[in-house]
Amino acid sequence: MTPDLPPLGEVIRRHRLSAVKSLGQHFLLDANLTGRIARAAAPLDASEIIEIGPGPGGLTRALLAAGARHITAIERDPRAVAALTELAEAFPQRLTIIEADALALDLPAITPAPRQIVANLPYNIATPLLLGWLENITAYDSLTLMFQKEVAQRLVAPPGGKDYGRLSVMTQWSAEARLLFDIGPKAFTPPPKVTSSLVRITPRGEPPAPCRRADLERVVAAAFGQRRKMLRAALKTLGIDTGALLAMSGIEPTERAERLTVIQFAALARAYAALTPRAGD
User: Fold this and answer.
1) Which residues have a Cβ under 8 Å from the Cβ of 170 and sit 6 or more positions away?
2) pLDDT at 2
3) ω before 43 within 30° of 0 (cis)?
4) Which helix (DSSP H) or strand (DSSP E) does residue 196 occupy?
5) What's the first-to-final CA gap in the chain, in angstroms?
6) What residue ranges of the chain are covered by domains with CATH 1.10.8.100?
7) Closest by Cα among 98, 18, 91, 87 to 53
8) Angle between helix 58-65 and helix 78-90 axes, rounded to 10 deg
9) What contacts 246, CB < 8 A, 6 or more positions away?
10) How far apart (Å, rounded) are the C-alpha atoms in residues 201 and 268?
11) Confidence grade of residue 43 (pLDDT, cut at 50, 70, 90)
12) Domain 8-203, classified CATH 3.40.50.150, yes or no
């Protein structure tokens, strides 16, 4: 049975939860929309749910109402922590609140497996959070995350367009990303200046092509660091013979980063590793 809860507007007023710009806060209070997000993240009762930046708890309520077995909520705003504590009391043993900066936490170390993340991410830290989670993506069953639409489009972008870049390659090498739906600015308090998009990210069993993540990150950063240049010039920042690197990878020197597939980037990463042997290899 769902307990009788005060309206979120009342919770916000009582705890003086005006959004703080430096924390990237935009509260989603529409129960229909938070319920839709919770349904998109289903099933919720088979794993630990981790929510980042829950604020006054609009999405948290929806996840609990949709059957989440247990939620670990990571919140750095002490005002929101106080509001969430009331929610935890209404749902005994189903909500744990950790007052901390999510960027500083090792989530698998503090939550039991299986686990998934469901969150309306603070805009100002969404990308670094995701890149950190991708490094250990198999620790999660799935990630259901709200981003600015332009960031979401980069996650799913295919080669050949302006949206395709470093974030596209690193995400798609580790996982499958799917755009679910958009939410307009008016749904949030305060309204952001951009549309938001919900994305479902599911870890791959194996990457589409083998390589070391660190090598992939290095070549992808170099290639897109000067994306308008041909690869023979853009990759010079790696400090190795770019002609040999590209020949070993089977990639034309006149290609540009935005045209390479994830599999081709993995080939570049393997060639880079071969040309820069490390101590102990």
Assistant:
1) 131, 134, 216, 217, 220
2) 67
3) yes
4) strand 196-203
5) 58
6) 213-275
7) 98
8) 20
9) 231, 232, 235, 252, 253, 268, 271
10) 25
11) very high
12) yes
279: pLDDT confidence band, cut at 50, 70 and 90? very low
pLDDT, tens digit, 9 for 90 and up, residues 138-157: 999 999 999 999 999 999 99
Query: Is the C-alpha dihedral spanning 108, 112, 115, 118 positive or negative?
Result: negative
Contact 139, 116 (CB under 8 A): no
Comparing 25-29, 35-39, 84-88, 196-200, the range with the smallest average pLDDT is 25-29
Query: What homologous superfamily does CATH list for 213-275?
Result: rRNA adenine dimethylase, C-terminal domain (1.10.8.100)
Tokens representing 73 are 């909520």
Are 11 and 86 spatial neighbours (Cβ–Cβ below 8 Å)? yes
| Reported confidence tier of residue 280, pLDDT bands at 50, 70, 90 | very low
Write down the residue that tokens 């039991």 correspond to.
112
Dist CA 54 CA 122 (whole Å): 9
